[in-house]
Amino acid sequence: MTSSPMGVGPLVEMRNISIHFGGIKAVDDVSIDLYPGEVVALLGHNGAGKSTLVKVLSGAYRANSGQILIDGRTVEIGSPRDAKALGIETIYQTLALAENIDAPGNLFLGRELTTPWGTLDDAAMEHAARQAILELNPNFTRIKEPVKNLSGGQRQSVAIARALHFKARILIMDEPTAALGPHETRQVADLITRLKAKGIGIFLISHDIHDVFSLADRISVMKNGKLVGTVRTQDVTQDDVLGMIILGKRPKIAA
Amino acid sequence: MMSLAQSPAAHKGGARDLKGALEVDLRLLAMIAAVAVIWVGFDLLTDGIFLTARNLWNLAVQTSVVGIMTTGMVLVIVTRHIDLSVGSVLGFVGMVMAVLQAQILPIGTGWNWSASLALGLGLGVVIGGAQGWWIAHRGVPSFIVTLGGLLIFRGLAWTITEGQTVAPLDETFQLMGGGLLGSIGAFWSWMVGAAGIVLVLVRTVMARRRRQRYGFAVRPIWAELLVAASIVGAIVGFVVVMNAYDRPRTDISQGIPIPVLILIGAVIIMSAVTKVTKFGRYVFAIGGNPEAAQLAGINTRLVIMAVFALMGLLAGIAGAVQTARLNAGANSTGELLELSVIAAAVIGGSSLAGGTGTISGAIVGAVFMQSLQSGMILLGLPTPMQNVVIGLVLILAVWIDTSYQRRRL
Ligand SMILES: Nc1ncnc2c1ncn2[C@@H]1O[C@H](COP(=O)(O)OP(=O)(O)O)[C@@H](O)[C@H]1O
Ligand SMILES: [Mg+2]
């Protein structure tokens, strides 16, 4: 499929985003966008500002300047709650799970199901969590155990199930395969292809340039907080992209 | 296709099957066993004085002040914080209530005790909330803020009356301390026991129904009955013992002391808070991974502030009980109690690393500590030696717990 912007407008536009932490400009005037059913990969060295940029979209950080548009409308994302209300779900690099709580508790954290009396409905949450998690990972049996007892792949399943259960329209995956074996990495790649087909827009941060070339429609490269450029995957070679990452130079692309 | 109802414990063997079927907390059982051991031990050493209705009744009253505060300290510790100020807050709030009763509000009116109590508890909430604000919003470590609080509120307790002790207090208020008339008698004790039994049974049936509705595995009936029967047995045993102690020089049963009733109320409410409310879930999530909690959209600062405000409220309630029991406001009331409270919570399984702790464990921890102390008093051990023993037991208990946890991983 192509991600041609023809006809449909962008799902997400981040315009001129800057954030600094004290003196460090972690993100410096970066603009990126994302269309429905598209995978945009974010590449760059460690510390380039990729995680920080997407955390602005997921509500974890507030930009010092810049604008975010969802479906063409300007939005204020002041907290993770705001982002979730807009259909933005995030699988963080750290997974962001509470180690001492079980999978259903983590899946519904901050969005718990309650009984008519306002108390936690653990049975209903367990039921929904089992469905969401088993769909991803049929071997997952330790639903009621604290997630600290789970393997990397299982924890990943919990984080992904959380994003899927709440029907993300915009999915942010920050190095989703960093802690996974080759088999699980392939599963995540399959999943991305399926989600893309459903029209979900995905920002994918990854270090694996092979994955990126097989999954991404476009690639945005960052270096030292700045956007080097955005290219269509079909227009470039892996060497071109490595050049962007290392040298910070845009390749010359025939039009 | 795998059945959703398949129990994760279904394929494990032996003791784990039994544990899985009962779904009991082995750690809690071990704690209860430890309490049983020291009870029997002290009973033998004291020629049968320890396990008398009179001593157990007194033990219950003595446990109440520390126990009430321990229910809050569990939440504080679960969120990776500490509150060193609770003994001083207890003393300060108690002193304020005493001054209100004896010097400010009209004596003998019904609202003398009720207004002073309400103001005192409100003060506890405000103090706890203010400390929580420094911790959550200003980022000062809780150890420092509450160490400051320990000094500040002990100092203020002295300053209000220039060190004078304030007495006597309102007679109704005194009942909260469980003095001569401060217990509810045999009939109402049985009513409380019956209400407890109904609560246990209703909860058991409802929890079972909710799981069955989704086709989840439930405990076998025999296990369900065994667990419910042990709890019912414990309730009946407790009421029998409380009723077996008569008012001095009468044959009228004392029944459950009012401070113990307050402790029971605190335990039930705080257990419910930790298990079935969003707030409780957030407290544990913050303890497990503060960043994850924040990214999940939880207002972690508000939760931390609320935890400290709740701790302040419980310190205020404990202050009312302790002051009522002494029938006086004294500036040294509650000195060093913060240490007993923290020790009880930690012995009861709260980890200072955060994220783990239970109310029931902490209460057993408080009973354990108080039993130790009470037994040593009966044996005539001097106070300094009591402290030596308690200090050693604290270290030993935590060492046993951590090495057990490590082996299980
Ligand atoms: N919360 C923070 N406080 C201070 N500096 C930060 C914070 N988060 C990120 N940074 C800094 O911002 C820069 C970009 O980091 P990050 O976005 O994590 O990079 P990447 O994800 O591309 O590896 C780094 O220099 C990092 O040290
Ligand atoms: Mg990163």
Structure description:
The complex is a heterodimer of chains A (255) and B (409). Chain A has helices at residues 50-57, 80-85, 103-107, 122-136, 152-165, 182-197, 209-215, 238-247; strands at residues 12-21, 24-34, 39-43, 65-70, 73-75, 88-91, 170-174, 201-205, 218-223, 226-232. Chain A is of the alpha/beta class and 255 residues long. In chain A, the strands form two sheets. Chain A has a six-stranded mixed β-sheet, with helices on both faces. In chain A, strands 2-1-4-5 form a four-stranded antiparallel β-sheet, with helices on one face. In chain A, strand 7 (170-174), helix 6 (182-197) and strand 8 form a beta-alpha-beta unit. The model of chain A is unreliable at 1-5 (pLDDT under 50). Chain B has 409 residues and is an all-alpha fold. In chain B, 73% of the residues lie in helices and 0% in strands. Chain B has 16 helices and no strands. Chain B has helices at 15-22, 26-45, 53-78, 86-104, 110-136, 142-161, 171-174, 185-213, 221-244, 258-276, 278-288, 290-295, 300-326, 337-347, 359-378, 383-408. In chain B, helix 4 crosses helix 13 (300-326). The longest helix of chain B is centred in the middle third of the chain and has 29 residues, at 185-213. Residues 1-14 of chain B have low confidence and may be disordered. At the A-B interface, helix 2 and helix 4 of A face helix 8, helix 11 and helix 12 of B. The complex binds adenosine-5'-diphosphate and magnesium ion. Adenosine-5'-diphosphate (ADP) binds next to strand 2 and helix 1 of chain A.
Low-confidence stretches of chain A: 1-5
Portion in strands of chain B:
under 5%
How much of the polypeptide of chain A forms β-strand, as a percent range?
A: 15-25%
Largest sheet of chain A: 6 strands, mixed
Structural class of chain B: mainly alpha
Order of helices and strands of chain B: HHHHHHHHHHHHHHHH
Measured between the Cα atoms of the first and last residue of chain A, the distance is 20 Å
Q: Unreliable segments of chain B (pLDDT under 50, ≥5 consecutive)?
A: 1-14
Number of helices of chain B: 16
Helix content estimate of chain A? 25-40%
- Largest sheet data of chain B: none
Give the oligomeric state. Answer: heterodimer
Instruction: Report the strand count of chain B.
Output: 0
Distance between the termini of chain B: 31 Å
